[in-house]
Amino acid sequence: MPRPISARIHPDSIRRNIEFVRRTATSSRVWAVIKANAYGHGIERIYPALAQADGIALLDLDEAVRVRELGWTKPVLLLEGIFEARDVEIADRYRLTVTVHCDEQLDLLDTAKPRQPIDIQLKMNSGMNRLGFRPDAYSRAWRRASGMASVGAIGLMSHFANADDGGIDWQIDEFDAATRELPGTRSLANSAAVLWHPRAHRDWVRPGTILYGASPTGSARHIAGLPLAAAMTLSSRIIGVQTLAPGETIGYGRAFTADRAMRIGVVACGYADGYPRHAPAGTPIAIDGVRTQLVGRVSMDMLTVDLTPCPAAGIGSSVQLWGDQVRVDEVAEPSGTIGYELMCALARRVPVEVDAAGSIDPVDSPVAA
Ligand SMILES: *Cc1c(COP(=O)(O)O)cnc(C)c1O
Asked: Is the pTM of this model over 0.85?
């Protein structure tokens, strides 16, 4: 028998989360962001759930080619654009929309001879200071692009630095001031702006993390009550039980000391599976559907849980590390990271299953905030 850990992907959750985005940004089209292999879920596994999206956004040319080969005919956006001349040929062959964020990328397009003009998203650096033309250089870049035979439609886009904790009006103001005279579709909103900043919705929204049921802030309480369904469940089983006397300790570093007699479950899941090593005692874990907590240090292949709230649990009991009973953010936040990272970092050694088409999992499961 293989080790009892596995991940399960729920395409139907993604389909419902896209519907929720549509109900939230009613007049916007939706780029479904599936970079990093669909935030670790696997592009091929979740592909059928994307049908309601208007476009797919990602970074890797390989991934873009994969979605075309899966049969996607609607737009595909390369969020970082092209890196060398050869990429223009691929963008041309596969009809990719490319982000253009610097003059060097305009140079590549200018010297290219695509069979048909390539649609671009011209990126403004409105304050994030990662990629993009500064507002004062933007309309010049737009004029240059619009004069190129190799460039088709020009969309206007920007990205927010802190849509998750409030202040984005200054970036929207920068964007609006610098684009006032320019035609073209607008696209600004990531997941956080979809949820909390209707002013940013515009023509196209670009949600990523909420499609997978994770919180854009990294904090589960910020999405409590929203119908965002987890698209990944990481489960395992209890493979050992220890009964501790008061004063005894658990695991490496003797990091946890029992203050009373305790039953401890040993779970087949460790940091080599993608569970964060820095998860502190108290991080929630569900055993047979009952929420309890991590105790002791996470080791490479195992971790330990307090079985006090689930006295009937024993060897073989089912364990949910994250999913519909424990949001991935509830594991990430106390570990000093965000759900995005945990989903992307699921280890290769974890076997992954996919729900059969049409199978239903609970819509808004009772997750504590
Ligand atoms: C990753 C990314 C998104 C999606 O961000 P989320 O916070 O996951 O919604 C949107 N736009 C750009 C340019 C991105 O790189």
From this structure: yes
